[in-house]
Amino acid sequence: MKRVLSEELFRIAERMIPGGVNSPVRSFQAVDTFPSFIERGEGSRLWDVDGNAYIDYVLSWGAAVLGHAHPEVVASVCAAAQKGLGFGAATPGESQLAERILSAFPAMDLIRFVSSGTEACMTAIRLARAHTRRDKFIKFSGNYHGHADTLLAAAGSGLATFSIPSSSGVPAPCVEGTLIAPFNDLAAVKALFREHSNAIAAVIVEPFVGNAGFIRPAEGFLEGLRELCSEEKAVLIFDEVITGFRLCWGGAQTLFHIDPDLTSLGKIIGGGLALAAFGGKAEIMSHLAPLGSVYQAGTLSGNPVAVASGLKTLELLGKGDSYARLTQNMRKLVSGIADSAKECDVAVQVDGEGGMFGLFFSDAPVTSFESAKKSDLMLFKKFFKGVFEKGIYWAPSLFEAGFLSLAHSEHDIVKTLEVIQATLRDVKKK
Ligand SMILES: *Cc1c(COP(=O)(O)O)cnc(C)c1O
Question: Smallest Cα–Cα separation from 273: which of 100, 69, 137?
Fold first, then answer.
């Protein structure tokens, strides 16, 4: 694959933008190369500036659930833009989007829109602290909740890729109240509650982890968190920024019939534009300004163009058998990868749920970030190089989930599996 223009653009970008990228997960540093610069996307496909086409399994980190540039979403966005790009004032679309999301999340009485998942999770923690008048909270290693100071301890995603245990520039007192437990380890959570009795405000969790690769919750784990938080009067926060509207209509809480106290959302609900939200029980959400004493604000919060994109995306996603189709293609992909790996004698753990999936090069089941880290990084690098060169746009990190869109056809999956099979054969030979 020729990537002459991408390389040239990367050298230019590097001179002005640290690492040449505006978010570290876009860097291809972990796979020893430079990123492809994207010219455009349509459906399941991306085209880079050199004219190479890719079948995309990153999909704007899951946001593009309908595929890229869906004509109806683009039309809605253009129509909204023509009426003005934003006013910093209330608009009717915000209530329409709120209604659509609240009807899909029965545990949510009230919702507020923000511009990023980072803001949503940061404010959820602030609310929980105010509500309980306690300072500490529990998060799980390898879970990523955005880059607010207090949440940058044992985080996943880019921090996992680059092995930064917690970011420098975060003063120690900021993460003093951040207690870490391994994902799927209920006993560890119980021990923390015992050790810090009446001091823990919240437990925040990615119910299916998407930022340490894909990791599913063990049976009873999420239910156990719900019980513990209720007993301890702590706020249970489900970070469904990835899983919201990706696993099913609603989120992991819908699949498991669990009512978290607060939920954060992002990615899909903006349909590719900057929109995120947090919501939950009225008694907690009512602490927010202007009703209560917890401050939170945003110039671009509920921006009308982003709201139009989110509304149309959810409208189209809510029609027909969207999740059956996503699940069917996910299963075909996951079982195809498992079959190829077996045939090529490569130790692989592959799993998925709804429109997300993940792959580890390991012979032991992956149930936590600690076990994910035992995955073979060299094998992943060879795998990534092999599939990318053959036109499969895969996340350039072992610690990211993969995503499917409704625009991915059966033919896309078949083609992807052919490439993966050929790559796994090569990987084994070397
Ligand atoms: C992406 C993500 C965030 C952060 O969202 P941004 O919009 O990038 O700030 C938070 N939590 C989870 C689970 C995410 O995947």
Answer: 69
> Do both 101 and 65 map to the same domain?
no
Bin 105: left if φ > 0, else alpha if -120 < ψ < 50, else beta.
beta
135 among known catalytic residues: no
Range of the domain at 8: 4-69+321-429
Of 317, 335, 367, which marks where a domain is finished?
317
Select which of 48, 57, 139, 239 is catalytic: 239
Q: What is the pLDDT along the chain (430 residues), one digit of tens a residue?
A: 999 999 999 999 999 999 999 999 999 999 999 999 999 999 999 999 999 999 999 999 999 999 999 999 999 999 999 999 999 999 999 999 999 999 999 999 999 999 999 999 999 999 999 999 999 999 999 999 999 999 988 776 666 655 444 788 888 888 889 999 999 999 999 999 999 999 999 999 999 999 999 999 999 999 999 999 999 999 999 999 999 999 999 999 999 999 999 999 999 999 999 999 999 999 999 999 999 999 999 999 999 999 999 999 999 999 999 999 999 999 999 999 999 999 999 999 999 999 999 999 999 999 999 999 999 999 999 999 999 999 999 999 999 999 999 999 999 999 999 999 999 999 877 6
Number of domains in the chain: 2
Among 106, 105, 110, 141, which residue's Cα sits nearest to residue 124? 110
How far CA 209 is from CA of 133, 138, 318, 368, 400, in Å, comes to: 28, 15, 24, 9, 9
Q: Are residues 125 and 31 in the same domain?
A: no
Same domain, 264 and 176: yes
Residue 321 CA to ligand 1 centre (angstroms):
27
Instruction: State the closest ligand 1 atom to the C-alpha of 206, by its place in the atom list counted from 1.
Output: 13
Which secondary-structure segment (H or E) carries 81?
helix 71-82
